[in-house]
Amino acid sequence: MTPPRARWVAATGLVALLAAGCGADAFDPGTDSDSTESGWERVADAPLSPREAPLTVTVGDSILVIGGSDGPPCPPNAGCAGPPELLRDGAAYDPVADAWAPISDAPAPVGAGPDTAAVVGDTVYLLSTQYPADGALLRSFLAYDAAADSWATLTPPGADDWWSLTTVAGQIVAYLSSHETGGSGAARDPIPPDLVYDAVTDTWSELPPDPLAPSFDRRLVGTDDGAVLLTSDLVPDPGVDPPVVRAATLDPASGTWSRLPDGDVLTGIGFRRVGNVLVSAVEGGADGGETNNWGRRIPYAGLLDPVAGTWSELPERAERDSLDGFMVPGDVSGERTVVSGAWVLDVPTLTWSRVPDPPEDGHVQGQAVALADTADGTTVFLWGGSRWPDGELVAEGWVWRLPPPG
C-alpha cells in the first residue's frame, strides 16, 4: 500500500516537478534573483507563511492561494510515511495590481490536488482530504464565496472514493478517475455513479451511466452546454491493444450521452478545455514496449473539437532533455493558451513557444501554479514550495506574462 504522505505528494503534482529540478539549468549565482531577464518577475510579499503545495485557483481576475503544509517537507524522490499537517489560511493575489489581500480561514484544513476545486461564478467548491494519525481518511467539501469572503461546510459526495471535481453547465460534478478495484485492474461491481451537486438543497444526485464504462484514466471536462468524457477501456488483459482515448458528450438537460469518435491518443488525463476545444499538450508517447508492441508510437497530446467530433494532431515541437530546466509544476490553461511543462501552446494558431528558465537556483518542489486571463493579458503564477537540498520552505511568488500572440 502506498504510504499516505506519498499519495499526497503525488496528488499535489510534485512528482511532475521532480524532473524539473534535478539537473536543471540554474541561474547564474551572480545575477539579481528579482531580475526580469529570465522573463519571470518576483511578486509582492504575501501575507502567508512559507509552505508547500497550497491550493491555487483563479476566480475572476484574482488567484487564491489556500492551505498547503508548513510541516517538514518530504525530500525529492523519497517516500515519507507520515502525512503533512495542512493549513487553513489563505490570501487573494491580484496579478494586475501586484497586490495581496488575506481571506478568511477555511473551516477545515486545505490540501491541493489535481482537479479538487471547481468554480461557479464567484464561488470556489473544493474537496480536501486529511490523514489523521489514527489512519482514518477525512474528506471535507467546502465552498468559498470570494465576493463575500465567507466559507461554508457542505455535504461531501462520498466517504470511500477519490473524487475529482468539474463544472458542467454551471453545476458542480464529482466523478471518479477510475472504475478499478484497488488498482487490481478489475472493474468495480456495480460501477459507482458520477454525481451532480445541488447547491440549493446541499444534496448529490446520480448522473446517467456513461456509455464508456468500465474505464480508467477518466477525465470529465465541463463545457458551457454539457460535458465531454475521455476514458480508456478497462480490460482484463491490459497492454495487448493500445488504450486509446474513447470519448462521449453529455447533454445535462436531457440526461443523454452521445458517443464521439475515438482518438489515436493515449490517456485523456492531460486534456483541458481551451475555448471551445479540448487540448492535451503532454509531451511524449508510447509504443507498447517489447512485449505488446503496437507497431507505432501513439502520442499523449492531441486536440478534440467536441462539436465537430473531430480529432487533430498537435504540431511538432523541438526535442528537449526532460531535465533541461524549462518546467512549470503541472498544466494550466486559459481562453486560448495551454502551459504544459516546458511549452506554451497558443491554441487558435497552434504555435509553440518555450517557458523561460525557472526563477530559482537549484530544485524547488511543491510550488503551486495558476493561470489568470486578465484585461492586461495572460499571467502564469508560481508560489511557495520547498527549496532543496536544504528543504527550506519558501513564501516567494513569481509571475510570467505571456507575450501577445504574434
Using the CA coordinates, give the radius of gyration: 21 Å
- CATH class call: Mainly Beta
CATH superfamily: Kelch-type beta propeller
| Major beta sheet, strand line-up | 1-33-30-29
Query: How many structural domains can be distinguished in the coordinates?
Result: 1
Mean pLDDT: 85
Strand fraction: 35-45%
Low-pLDDT parts are 1-36
Number of helices: 2
CATH topology: Neuraminidase
CATH architecture level-2 label: 6 Propeller
Profile the largest sheet.
4 strands, antiparallel
Number of strands: 33
Structural class: mainly beta
How far apart are the termini? 50 Å
Protein name: Galactose oxidase
Signal peptide: 1-26
InterPro entries: Kelch-typ_b-propeller
Keywords: Signal
Structural write-up:
With 406 residues, the protein is mainly β. The chain has one domain (4-401): Kelch-type beta propeller (Neuraminidase). It is built from two helices and 33 strands. The chain has helices spanning 4-11, 14-21; strands at 40-42, 55-59, 62-66, 90-94, 99-103, 117-120, 123-130, 138-145, 150-154, 163-168, 171-176, 195-198, 203-206, 215-222, 227-233, 244-251, 256-266, 272-274, 277-280, 285-286, 298-299, 302-305, 310-312, 332-333, 337-340, 343-346, 351-354, 363-365, 368-374, 377-383, 386-388, 392-393, 397-401. Strands 1-33-30-29 form a four-stranded antiparallel beta sheet, with no helix packed on it. It has a four-stranded antiparallel beta sheet with strand order 2-3-4-5, with no helix packed on it. The longest helix is centred in the first third of the chain and has 8 residues, at 4-11.
